[in-house]
TrEMBL record:
Protein name per Swiss-Prot or TrEMBL: Pyrroline-5-carboxylate reductase catalytic N-terminal domain-containing protein
InterPro entries membership: NAD(P)-bd_dom_sf, P5C_Rdtase_cat_N, STEAP_metalloreductase
Domain Pyrroline-5-carboxylate reductase catalytic N-terminal residue range list: 21-109
Transmembrane segments: none
Species of the source: Allosediminivita pacifica
A GO term for molecular function: oxidoreductase activity
Keywords per UniProt: Oxidoreductase
Domain of life: Bacteria
Length: 231
C-alpha cells in the first residue's frame, strides 16, 4: 500500500536518514499490532515481554522483525513502547534496568485493576505521573491509551487518506513528544497535543469511555476519534 512507504526517520550526526530501532515491551494486542505496523514502515522492531517465546518468534517472523528479552529490546533502542497490563509495569521496569535511562518510552498503559474495570490511580493523580515518579530518568510520552487495538489495522490500511484519526499525546518533554508524533503518524494517526503528563488524570478515565464506545455500543470495536474546533 502506497501510504505504508512513508515513515518517521531519525537523522544521524551527518544528517543521513535512519529508520528507528523500536523495542516493544509487552507484545500483546497493543504491542503486537503497533510493532507489526512500525516494522511494515521499515523500522527495526524487537518484540519482547510475553509468556511465550514461540509467540514472540512468530510475531517477529510475520513482521520481518526481531525478538528478545526486555533488556535486549531496550539496548540501543531509539524508542520503546510500554504495552503491558498495569500490574506488570514494575516487572518490565525491573527487567529493563538502568539501561532505560534517557530513553524515549511511548506508554499506552491504563492503570487498571486485575478485572480491567476500575482505575487504581486517580482522580488527582495518573498512571502517567506515577511512571514518571518511578523513572524520572525516562522520556515518557503517553499515547494510544485511548485507541482500541482493533483500530490499528484499518487505520494503517487507510494511511494517507485525510483526515487521519487523532491520538491524545501528552508528555512533559516536548522534544520527546515530537519524535513520538512521527511514530504516531507512521501508523496512520495524527497526534493531538494534550499537554503535560498531569493531563493523564483526565485522559486515563476517558480511555474507559472509549472502552464503552468500542466494546459495548453497536458498530464494532475499531473506534477512532477526531476533535474539531469550530470557528
Ligand atoms: N487492548 C486494547 O485495545 C487497549 C487499548 C488502550 C490501552 N490499552 C492498555 O495497553 C496495555 C496493554 O494492553 P494489551 O491489551 O495489549 O494487553 P495484552 O494483550 O494482555 O498484552 C500484554 C503483554 O504482556 C505480556 N505479559 C503478561 N503477563 C506477563 C508475564 N507474567 N510475563 C511476561 N509477559 C507477560 C503478555 O504476554 P502473553 O503474550 O503471554 O499474553 C502480552 O504479551 C494495558 O495497560 C491496557 O490497559 C489496551
Amino acid at each position: 500500500m502506497a501510504g505504508h512507504r512513508s515513515r518517521h526517520i531519525m537523522q544521524d550526526q551527518e544528517g543521513l536518514e535512519q529508520d528507528m530501532k523500536i523495542g516493544i515491551l509487552g507484545s500483546g494486542l497493543m504491542g503486537g499490532k503497533l510493532g507489526r505496523n512500525w516494522a511494515a514502515c521499515g523500522h527495526d522492531v524487537t518484540f519482547a515481554y510475553s509468556r511465550s517465546t514461540s509467540k514472540l518468534e512468530r510475531l517477529a517472523r510475520d513482521a520481518g522483525a526481531s525478538y528478545g528479552s526486555v533488556a535486549e529490546a531496550v539496548d540501543g533502542a531509539d524508542a520503546l513502547l510500554l504495552s503491558v497490563h498495569w500490574s506488570r509495569v514494575d516487572d518490565v521496569l525491573e527487567q529493563a534496568t538502568a539501561s532505560l535511562g534517557g530513553k524515549l518510552v511511548l506508554n499506552c498503559c491504563v492503570p487498571l485493576d486485575e478485572g480491567n474495570s476500575n482505575l487504581v490511580i486517580g482522580p488527582n493523580d495518573s498512571g502517567a505521573e506515577e511512571l514518571a515518579r518511578r523513572r524520572p530518568d525516562v522520556r515518557w510520552v503517553s499515547c494510544f491509551n485511548t485507541i482500541p487495538s482493533e483500530a490499528f489495522a484499518p487505520v494503517f490500511a487507510r494511511k494517507g487518506q485525510t483526515p487521519a484519526p487523532q491520538v491524545f499525546t501528552y508528555s512533559d518533554d516536548d522534544a520527546a513528544k515530537e519524535i513520538a508524533g512521527g511514530l504516531i503518524r507512521d501508523v496512520g494517526f495524527e497526534p493531538l497535543d494534550t499537554g503535560g503528563l498531569r493531563n493523564g488524570r483526565y485522559v486515563e478515565p476517558f480511555a474507559l469511555a472509549t472502552v464503552e464506545l468500542a466494546y459495548m455500543q453497536p458498530g464494532g470495536p475499531a473506534l477512532t476519534y477526531r476533535f474539531e474546533k469550530l470557528r
